[in-house]
Amino acid sequence: MSYTNFKIETDADGIALVTWDMPEKSMNVLTQEVMAELDSIVDQTSGDPAVKGVVITSGKSSFSGGADLTMIKSMFAIQAEEKAKDPATAAQKLFDLAGRLSSLFRKLETSGKPWVSAINGTCMGGAFELSLACHGRVASNAKSVKIALPEVKVGIFPGAGGTQRVPRLTNTQDALQMMTTGSSLTASRAKALGLVHDVVDPDKLIDAAKGMIKNGLKPVQPWDEKGFKLPGGGIWTPASAQLWPAASAILRRETYGNYPGAIAILKSVYEGLQVPFDTGLRIEQRYFTEILQTTEAFSMIRSLFISMQELGKGARRPAGVPKTELKKVGVVGAGFMGASIAYVTAAAGIPVILIDRDMEAAGKGKAHSEGLVKDSIGKGRLTKDEGEALLSRITPSADYGDLKDADLVIEAVFEDRQVKKDVIEKVEAVIAEDTIFASNTSTLPITGLAKNSNRPDRFIGIHFFSPVEKMMLTEVILGKETGDRALAAALDYVAAIKKTPIVVNDTRGFYVNRCVFRYIHEAYDMLIEGVPPAMIENAAKMAGMPVGPLSLNDEVAIDLSQKILKATIADLGEKAVDPRHMAMIDKMVDEFDRRGRKNGKGFYEYPAKPAKKYLWPGLKELYPQKDADKIDVEVLKRRFLATIALEAARTMEEGIVTDPREADVGSILGFGFAPYTGGTLSYIDGMGANAFVELCEKLAEDYGHHFKPIPLLKDMAEKGDTFYGRFNPYGEAQKAA
């Protein structure tokens, strides 16, 4: 029998080698077709007396990344259709659908033939659950091997047996840690935990897997054998009595109860370990069905799995524009940002010319990359040879003439219009006619900067976030005259350096910074009202933000906030800025010299390490303090999320952001907007425009006109619209819910 996605070869010893190699895909993924073929392969091999055992491996550089996004999308679409047709049976149909993969894996492990998974490269999610269902697991010791159950990061959890098999193979604490964080394991760590039986050199992988079968591997899982005991002794032991209360407390501390998928992991494991394995699978299936029906799961999967992949694959790239082959990139400005941009470019295999005013300054920029390379080598992320090759691609220079053959030039100089004007003129004097020029400005509108260019159609913004080597988002900003070729080239570059782009139209602060400063300014309002600073920071984190607004402002720099507020007044007039904000920031910077982390004192104090930062006690003296017991934390949480989401809605109304996927992904990757919501616009869609408008009207009444709902939202509320419905990024054929 032949298959589309698998190839089977049976050797003289009767061992069937099943090679998973999906045509026209860079990585294997679980699809309905793959599941159907695997089902047939289980039947074929179990029914063939000549087959003594089965080894499953990948024909690609990685084993598999798990479930296919199309299949995930279809599950939600099917659920929506069933709910509309027959709400009473919709959950049952989803339950049956959710259990299909789990049933298949159970069929495999009880087929009567020993199966061994030979893991090369990435093995994630459902693919690792497939491997766990095999009776043996062998992994390559290559650096590329990453083993994980990362489903919690997109709002769900391992629902194909993961919550039942992992804690039956390793101790419960490590099992919970792996699944509730979604963190990756190396092959050696997976072996130490008992999740992998052997780790071998890549060229010995298949032989080692076959060797397990030849050596008499039992076609029975440990939990199916009589007398099986759980690692660590099970639920009703003194150790578990200590573990479970602590595990629940730690999860609440880390997530504030915002992630139903993470809570479901604890429930599935706790309940599943008290019953026979098949009953445990049933418990897992019920929780998985429940989680699939949550707003959090729908929104997180859409934004963090589907939309991120679509944007990363060029969803916003202009059609018909040839791909830009980047043979050389120029970076002007070898300060922290420019040096970091040079580093990620060289890390992508692209030669870089790093320009500054003199060789000493340019050399300091390359030294920054040398530090990053040294750190990566020390942590095992790069070999010495790889590090040297990366650094060899960065050429420091003080001669603009070295940019003459660059395909793309990125300026990352000081945020000053005149300085940037000088750089634009110097660069355009030497580059080729078709070279694309990009500005990394974070505050200055691209259209205004492009007025200094002789080729505004090839002028674009590429806004990086700090630290560049860690932050996965870039904003690509279109000036009024930016052409399709410049946009395509910018997106090709962002894809080459493996970051996720969002495309926004030109405005002050673009998209991310507009939302970030609404977050920070709401904290200013709270300080002025007398809300205790610690309560402000904690309420923000309870709402799902990764860092409090005062801490974030310290990182951004308080004197930068002062500069932005002054520039806003200069450009838009006094009414554009709350005078109380200006007075507070002037006092912080000019009177107290508190500029943020960079000078060791801001809203926080920064003592010498290893001591941790702490809130500046003087903050309590700036404004009369309210009694914390009389402040509603839930209101504080809603204020933070609503003010940011409202600003995101304004950018849609103004046409700054045109695709809701970009607003959502940009808010999460750019500044960590409560990921469980799916992003700023999914937060509004999740509660409904009508409920959001009502919330904003109440907040506006109590806390200021900046909460006043905009006309777009009022119209959406009246018509029952969603952002993904009104600004549907998929076209009429795939109308989004």
What number is the mean pLDDT?
A: 94
What is the first-to-last residue Cα distance? 41 Å
Major sheet description: 8 strands, mixed
Beta-strand percent range: 5-15%
Please, what is the CATH homologous superfamily of the largest domain?
A: 2-enoyl-CoA Hydratase, Chain A, domain 1
**CATH class type of the largest domain:** Alpha Beta
Overview of the molecule:
There is one protein chain. With 737 residues, the chain is α/β, with parallel strands linked by helices. It has three domains: 288 residues, 2-enoyl-CoA Hydratase, Chain A, domain 1 (Alpha-Beta Complex); 181 residues, Rossmann fold; 214 residues, N-(1-d-carboxylethyl)-l-norvaline Dehydrogenase, domain 2. It contains 31 helices and 18 strands. The strands form four sheets. It has an eight-stranded mixed β-sheet with strand order 11-10-9-12-13-14-15-16, with helices on both faces. Strands 1-2-3-4-6-8 form a six-stranded mixed β-sheet, sandwiched between helices. Strands 5-7 form a two-stranded parallel ribbon. The longest helix has 21 residues.
Write the layout of secondary structure elements.
Blueprint: E1 6-10, E2 15-20, H1 32-46, E3 53-58, H2 69-85, H3 87-98, H4 100-109, E4 115-119, E5 122-124, H5 126-133, E6 136-140, E7 146-148, H6 162-169, H7 172-181, H8 187-192, E8 198-200, H9 205-214, H10 238-255, H11 260-272, H12 277-292, H13 295-312, E9 329-332, H14 336-347, E10 352-355, H15 359-378, H16 384-392, E11 394-397, E12 408-411, H17 417-428, E13 436-439, H18 446-450, E14 459-464, E15 473-478, H19 484-496, E16 500-505, H20 512-529, H21 533-542, H22 549-556, H23 558-572, H24 579-591, E17 604-605, E18 614-615, H25 619-622, H26 633-653, H27 660-671, H28 680-687, H29 689-703, H30 711-719, H31 723-726
Parallel strand pairs: 2-3, 3-4, 4-6, 5-7, 6-8, 9-10, 9-12, 10-11, 12-13, 13-14, 15-16
Antiparallel strand pairs: 1-2, 14-15, 17-18
